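## retry 2 of 3
previous attempt timed out at serialization; input unchanged, resubmitting
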Amino acid sequence: MAKALMIQGTGSGAGKSLIVTALCRVFRNMGINTAPFKAQNMALNSYISADGGEIGRAQVLQAEAAQVEPTVDMNPILLKASGESGSQVIIHGRVHSTMKAKEYYAFKKTAWNAVKESYDRLSQKYDLIVMEGAGSPAEINLMNADIVNMAAAKHAKAPVILVGDIDKGGVFASLYGTVKLLGKDSRHIKAFIINKFRGDMEILKPGLEMIDSKTGKPVIGVLPYIKDIGLPEEDGLALSGFKSSRGQGLRGKKIKIVVVRLQYISNFTDFDPFEHEPDVELVYSNNPVDIENADIAIIPGSKNTIKDLMFIKENRLDKSIKCAYKKGVQIIGMCGGYQMLGRKIYDPYCVESRCKEIDGIGLLNIETTFDKGKTICRTEAELLGFRDWGLGISKKTNTQPLTPLLKGYEIHMGQSAGDIGLFKINRIPHPTIHPVRDSSLNGVHPFTGSPILDGSKKENCWGTYLHGIFENDFFRRGIINQARKINRLSSLDSTVIYEDIKDKAINNLANIVKENLDMNFIKRIINL
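## retry succeeded, writing output
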């Protein structure tokens, strides 16, 4: 059985996820076979794991930090808020059903069994599990139904370190209050971490001593506020008022990429790679002026495509998108955004809403129908007609030009028909999860084993179901260079290797955490 350590927080946004990420890399660098674990995650940002299931992106980043393949056992329960209908409940990577809060609490016994199964499997494969809590462990109205904080810590026999966010204010009150509200369960908390500090340490020190005196638990580290961590955010709330601060190294005009800020935006990490390009300014906005004056406008994925399409229309953003299209702005639709750019969306089974039919924005000659299945898989894709795109991304062998394959993944309800044929894709099934099945809706999308077509393009508008394609460096640079050409700017060679940048950021974060925490204390409490 693996040893375990749990990081809990005094509330959401305290920094649990990134501290777990850092510790996964710290322990991996010590030569310890380490895996992350979060019993239950609520997030619209998801990914397809190595074993073919859907899990939260935060656990994927943590697995990358531990230098192991992410699996569904690292995040056995994923909740995806779907609006009035409640949340989609995903267990072991597969949709179970959509439930309202009261229904889910009644379902907790089944969920808890799934959590224990996953943790026990991980514990057989790894030497150390670094666990992440959710929200606060001291929500007194929810403690009896907890499966992610103290319940998970007790099952794993994991000592707990509690993180408080000093940037929000009241950090000592939140640490002390959490301990007192937990009652006897507070014995599992062995120490505190104060996160996001940017003041005078001499002024803080008396508080560190007093919180130790009042609780009997030491502060084993004060982590500095890091303005630009350079790693993907877990929560879409972080996008409010977002404007990229990177890409300052190149003088002259920046290519402005505007991502429409949807109410149910999902997989916004699709666009993180653009932040690192020296000639790009990335903005999340619902401002018509931003959209109409963008060089590239993107409609992202959505957990509720129909409601977000209604949101776009109610705010007349569809007019702005069409205006931008007429001006020659490159319009891109990703997954749900791709569906919105078509002529019609049909929902005959009311999978997403009570609206069975809605007109799309109408820039692409496709129509989408939501059926009873959900497609989830990793993919490899070939961009068809790449010479017509003018991307300049072909590579030559001695005799034959080749198109590099794009790696990505699909997570979507619905199938589109019409003018399809932008990508030729191979879906990569996992042998233990085949075919894809949505058990709650009894829908099946079998893998045929043959390449299929995806995506649609009409003049300067295109869309696809493929997530993650902008992590392919040559393709991302080609898209930017298209916009540069329209602006009469010379093309730039690709110099950004996104995977290397992300790995460097993980190492930087790990070094900061290691330097500012008492690692000997941590090793002692987990008996390393």
